[in-house]
Amino acid sequence: MSTYDQHVFDELKKWEIEMTKRPTLWNKATKTVQTKINEKIPQKVHDVVTASIKQMIKATLLGSEYTTRKTSQFQGSLQEQDEKLKERLAFYKKTAAFEGAGTGAGGFLLGLADFPLLLGIKMKFLFEAASIYGLDVKDYRERIFILHVFRLAFSDPHKRKEAFEKVVFWKETIDEFPAHPGAINQINWQELQQDYRDHIDLIKMLQMVPGLGALIGVYANYHFLEDLGEVAQNCFRWRVLMEQNHE
Which Pfam families match (predicted)? Predict the structure, then answer.
């Protein structure tokens, strides 16, 4: 293991502690508040968000939109892969911020449109990130891995340890899925949608407030991509190092 790889390994062990720690009192209080907020949000808003999440994720697993673009596997050391990801993440953060500013300034209807647009940006980033770390995103089973990375990034703190273990013990996880698109029926859509919505609902609702929408849209979308980038990088780093150790 190179000096850089050892440094990454040490960072991943610290990240493991963060991902597996028990929910705090703040997490529990936030969950209670979020549940009450969800009860106040108009049903049509819930319907738009739920439908966009489910359709986008299904398109990710079954469609060709993401598997026919930028799927060439990057050749390089782990350090070079990290540098390449940093470069591409900067691009996606700016793209998300720009999109958030535009929809945030447009009021309620454009605010609703932000949900599927932002989700699309996140998915495009995850597919490109996977390719950077050498995954073949045309392989259906690797797309299942990408979905688990997405789930971990936006998981409920009470379920984060389970989501983390699904990623780091990937060989055991993927054995639960048949190697064909029918595995999509084994995904708990309700849980996945609700966790993602709970993660973003509050700040995205504020994006629809007149006069504040554009500013909040820029801030929220930029940081959503930043958080996703950190989780994705660590998940893919983990895969790279674990597979190297088993060679």
Answer: EcsC
Tokens matching residue 1? 């293991």
Residues belonging to the chain? 247
For the chain, what is the radius of gyration of the CA atoms? 18
Q: CA dihedral in degrees (57, 194, 211, 97; nearest 10)? A: -40
User: What is d(CA 137, CA 172) in angstroms, rounded to the nearest whole number?
Assistant: 19
The Cα angle at residue 59 between residues 110 and 126, in degrees rounded to 5:
80
User: Are the C-beta atoms of 243 and 5 separated by less than 8 Å?
Assistant: no
Q: Please list the pLDDT of the chain residue by residue as tens digits (247 residues).
A: 789 999 999 999 999 999 998 876 655 556 666 667 667 767 776 677 667 677 777 776 666 556 555 555 677 899 999 999 999 999 999 888 887 665 544 444 444 555 677 778 888 899 999 999 999 888 888 888 998 999 899 888 888 999 999 999 998 988 877 666 565 666 666 677 667 766 665 555 555 445 555 566 676 788 889 999 999 999 999 999 988 876 5
- Token readout for 71 is 């799927």
Residue 131 to residue 234: CA distance in whole angstroms: 14
**108 to each of 41, 99, 163, 205, 213, how far by Cα in Å?**
13, 15, 33, 9, 9
Whether the CB-CB separation of 104 and 214 falls below 8 Å is answered with yes
Could you give the CA distance from residue 125 to residue 204 in angstroms, rounded to a whole number? Answer: 20
pTM of the model: 0.79
